């Protein structure tokens, strides 16, 4: 299993890429067909790559099964026994726990925090699971979690929403025919730069897309009380990963001779990637120092980055359409 996934802002991206990132799977066409559009969900106050909620079902190398809590508790005496059985059947397990009970987490015995956790192995002698999560200051790492911690963390969640109690089983599916789709990339880039909404019948939450979503960060910073405002560092990590993916996507397209004058465009996105990494680090610094001058600097850099990216994408679309 790949322990250094290319995208790791959220556990779901890192876990899927960890599963499919094997030497004998060419994931490049799927990877570069996707992870283009950005969506902000108002109710969750969070930025995602679009179709975040469907990634298990849309990844061509993943078999995904949802096990309701009622079935699990009717058939197994404990959660950890179910997980051991699932892993013995070559399945990975993905579920929500309260990090208050997970000793590897910064939230351990401090605050209640519901979050996904990915389980990929176990050690019967030690009574532990091998898990992965953005568990230390948002960094995606592998850790150990005792059977009892996981049982407590899962059982402690008190919600009438079955979403938080469902357990996801993930397995490898053999898939050999998957092709890069230039038209899909062009269409999604257009949706991103013109902030066109994704039509999604399964998603009811109010959302905003693309460049408009990035501009929302600026509006939030300008209209908030400076004494209490904090930037969402996860958002800026996602923005940086977006530029990193765009650079790799353009390099891939250039290798396939799909984009004229590709080196110039690649260079432009490498510069944006570097500027967004710097911006993410400035956000971390600002959230600690709360210096107004630093906040103003972040806003101006973000504005400049957005305008620069729009120019580059217009150029890309002009060359591939």
Short description:
With 321 residues, this protein is α+β, with helices and mostly antiparallel strands. It is built from eleven helices and nine strands.
Describe this structure in words.
The chain is an alpha+beta fold. The chain has two domains: about 10-170, Alpha-Beta Complex (Cathepsin B, Chain A); about 180-320. The chain is about 45% helix and about 20% strand. It has eleven helices and nine strands. The strands form two sheets. It has a six-stranded antiparallel beta sheet, sandwiched between helices. Strand 6 and strand 7 form a beta hairpin. Helix 8 (about 210-225) runs antiparallel to helix 11 (about 290-320), helix 9 runs antiparallel to helix 10 (about 260-290) and helix 10 runs antiparallel to helix 11. The longest helix has 29 residues, at about 290-320. The two termini are about 40 Å apart. The mean pLDDT is about 95.
